[in-house]
Write a structure and sequence with these properties.
- The protein is of the alpha/beta class.
- The protein has two domains: 138 residues, Aldolase class I (TIM Barrel); 122 residues, no CATH class.
- Helices cover 32% and strands 14% of the residues.
- It contains eight helices and eight strands; from the N terminus they run H-E-H-E-H-E-H-E-E-H-E-E-E-H-H-H.
- A five-stranded parallel beta sheet has the order 1-2-3-4-5.
- Strand 6 and strand 7 form a beta hairpin.
- The longest helix is centred in the last third of the chain and has 15 residues.
- The model has no long low-confidence stretch (mean pLDDT 91).
């Protein structure tokens, strides 16, 4: 918890920080530690949010045991993945149990819906129509770059001159992984909280001066590939697929910027 305390103290120095979300992996896999983090977040005056796939909610009673403590601690929002990339069943899923119980407890709750234009690969999981949805496109990076791209239409690298992440120059959110890496996009670091205080990293950040974010912000992964003389294969499904493929090849040259290794499939978490 020492690392968490340090990060929260630094977050207090950044006036724009209002929300702190715990996500994954899966935060409910470390339930006692998650509750301790929530207590600290709320005590310091931040809004606490949780992102989960609701795996623990096999029944509504199970969901209640895990979600009531969040209500008691004053969690400000729960976001639960409820789509066919997390659940294949056409019946009631754990996510749907968790969504219902969260709503019944009065917790502000939303369902995350990840979708792809290649919908024939998945049987849709029905949303709960009475609850708000956060709709997100599937990004073909990480495991998805290998397991979900087979047989899909590929486009030339020159097509991808824009990054779908629009906040690279002035990010409205950041990720901090368990190793202290601070990232705007998972796998591309701006620094590490174990080496530089978080508030200093955020103040000093400039996309133009970063060896990866600079090119990506100006011309997407196409410009990134030109900057490093990357030799392309047959094509890519989307910009994230291309960017991730380039970074896989450059990771050994830039281990401090392209980390952690788990993002690139080089180690298990």
């Amino acid at each position: 918890m020492g690392q968490v305390d340090q990060i929260l103290r630094e977050a207090q120095k950044i006036n724009s920080v209002e929300w702190i979300f715990l996500n994954g992996g899966e935060p409910f896999m470390r339930f006692p530690q998650m509750l301790n983090c929530i207590k600290k977040i709320v005590q310091l005056g931040f809004n606490a949010g949780i992102v989960t796939n609701g795996f623990f909610a096999r029944t509504e009673d199970c969901a209640l045991r895990f979600l009531r403590p969040l209500q008691q601690l004053g969690v400000s929002e729960v976001r639960i993945s409820n789509d066919s990339y997390h659940y294949k069943s056409t019946g009631t899923t754990p996510a749907q149990n968790a969504l219902k119980v969260s709503h019944d407890l009065g917790l502000p709750v939303s369902q995350i819906r990840v979708s792809s234009e290649f919908s024939e690969y998945h049987t849709p999981v029905e949303p709960i129509e009475t609850l708000p949805s956060i709709n997100r496109p599937l990004r073909y990076q990480g495991r998805a770059s290998e397991s979900l791209t087979q047989g899909l239409t590929l486009s030339s690298w020159r097509t991808f001159s824009h990054c779908p992440l629009n906040e690279i120059d002035e990010p409205d959110s950041i990720y901090i992984d368990p190793y202290g890496n601070v990232q705007i996009c998972p796998g591309i670091n701006i620094g590490n909280t174990g080496e530089t205080p978080l508030a200093e990293l955020i103040t000093a950040y400039s996309a133009a001066d970063h060896p990866f974010y600079g090119s990506i912000a100006q011309g997407g992964p196409a410009l990134l590939s030109e900057a490093y003389g990357f030799v392309h294969g047959v094509g890519y499904v989307d910009a994230c697929h291309m960017c991730y493929t380039i970074r896989q090849q450059l990771r050994e040259r830039f281990p401090d910027y392209l980390a952690p290794r788990q993002v690139y499939g080089l180690e298990k978490s």
